[in-house]
Amino acid sequence: MSPLPATIPALVRTRVRAAVRRPARLTPEETAGRALTLRLVSLLLQYPDSELTSARPELTAVVEALPATPGAEHLARFTGWFAAQEPEALERHYVEMFDLRRKSSLYLTYYLHGDTRRRGLALLTLNQQYRAAGWSTDGGELPDHLPVVLEFAALVGPGGGEAPLRRHRRGLELIHHALTGSGSPYRHVLAALLSLLPPPTEADRAAVARLVAEGPPNEEVGLDPYGTYGEGEFAPPATFVPPMPAPPTRVPLTPTSRPEGSR
């Protein structure tokens, strides 16, 4: 997009840019298909426990029945790999990619705020947004865990529901970059998600490059999202400690949530 004239007030320029990047109005069928894709991405980014691995044939069938889109192609590539792996190998790979590497953690506010006090406020704001929409995470995970954010987006819809995804676009780009650099098939799941969002701006690309080089912001005293670390202690400086994962709440793929032809 070419630069807007400097004579236009800053507020107007901001609104024009937002209008340009805003997705076109979707039909009910497109909205339902988008919600299904978001739910699939949410499921596939959860820890591959026995319940999820036992559902691999069903997940593969649902992905194969999606309309032909770049996102569906990426999901098909992932489920092809996912279905062929031994459960133990999937568990090891998931832990290595998402629990042991700071640049592919699934906790989105970390990329925007790092280990700073602002992260706690961001988590509180996100929780309040969920409650205002009449949705509760039941305390099973932090509100910025990507599968949780995706489920909210699927339930509420492309406007307010997807706002947290757009807000954390740069963090999503960094996760995708890290997974791609590691050669992880999970890069296809992130690519499917990114295909639903507006294209990144030059500012987005520059910010991601800085995150790759420098990492997220940090304070001299590392902080847990709610102010403490471990048994009430502060984390050492520059330490990234992702919260302990809790069993996620899944929304099953019921017959009414599947696209025509997936049965």
From TrEMBL:
Residues 219-263 are annotated as: Disordered. InterPro entries: DMSO/NO3_reduct_chaperone, NO3_reductase_chaperone_NarJ, TorD-like_sf. Residues 239-250 have a biased composition (Pro residues). Keywords: Nitrate assimilation. NCBIfam families: narJ. This is Nitrate reductase molybdenum cofactor assembly chaperone.
